[in-house]
Specification:
The chain has 342 residues and is an alpha/beta fold. The chain is built from twelve helices and eleven strands. A nine-stranded mixed beta sheet has the order 9-8-7-5-4-3-1-10-11, with helices on one face. Helix 2 runs parallel beside helix 3 and helix 4 packs parallel to helix 6.
Amino acid sequence: MTSHPWRLTFDTNPDDCNLKCLMCEEHSPYSSSQEERKACGQPPRRMDIRVLEQVLEELKDHPPREIIPSTMGEPLLYPHFDRILGLCQKFGIRLNLTTNGTFPRGGASEWAHKIVPVGSDVKISFNGTRAEVQEEIMRNSRMEAVLNNLRTFVEIRDGHAAQGGNYCSVTLQATFLEANLAELPGIVRLAAELNVDRVKGHHLWVHFAEMQDQNLRRCRESVQRWNDVVAQCRESAANHVRPGGSPVKLENFHPLEFNAGQQVDPRSECPFLGQEAWVNHAGRFDPCCAPDELRKSLGTFGTVQERAFESIWRGAEYQALVAGYKQRPLCQTCLMRRMPDA
């Protein structure tokens, strides 16, 4: 448990997205949540920028090293994104961004010039080296446009760093699925070719029955296929280096052991509790990045409008979760836990 979170995620605009990725909790073609919200007359969930400003002002003496705008939805569609960049400059905080690669409301060049000076890492969602795979998983995405945007962003990043400016790493981020399993070694090779720093991924959270057969943890055979591809990806990273000679970093490319109940190794640790925190669009304090309905099962901690952030962080409810999370059913199957030596 740290005295203050080193990173904060703000769920700025979970309802805004221009893609329909199959695995997305909110915007998948298999999800009915957006239609249901509209049918009930509910407006899009968007954070009042004053919530974000309030939390950072409160933590100004011990600011987080990084903040992350919404990872659900497309954060660059948030109408106050430029003010987030200004807050990063004001408080000396780095921006950690996950974007779908379309760079809406400006284009890759304009956004790169704004983001690179304050960015720690920009993760671009990427799920296939073949257009038919990428565009099937990330519906409405266009492979050629995403690649052009990626090249533009990396070129501006490299130019900024060459002039002595901030170095913002770039990551290709995948969701590990049956549909893109064979693509992963090629994604590593592509990352090296394009001077991308890292390839990162996460195993699928299964939100819909239609996605059950995409879960690589579902049977012994799928686990073995995953383990074989992990070895191929590591070989790809070793054999294909970036233009400067450094290898592409791989994150979360670890072999699995089949577990019928899909429980994780009890020795594995949560990388978030006591280290990071989330604030949802309405100001609710959340302990982790589990899907919204699931993370509610971890407790009710209040909102940052009602309670000072540090009061929640140091409060008995949150401290009890940090100490006893391994007994929680959600945490016992969490895809994000890591072995201490991983």
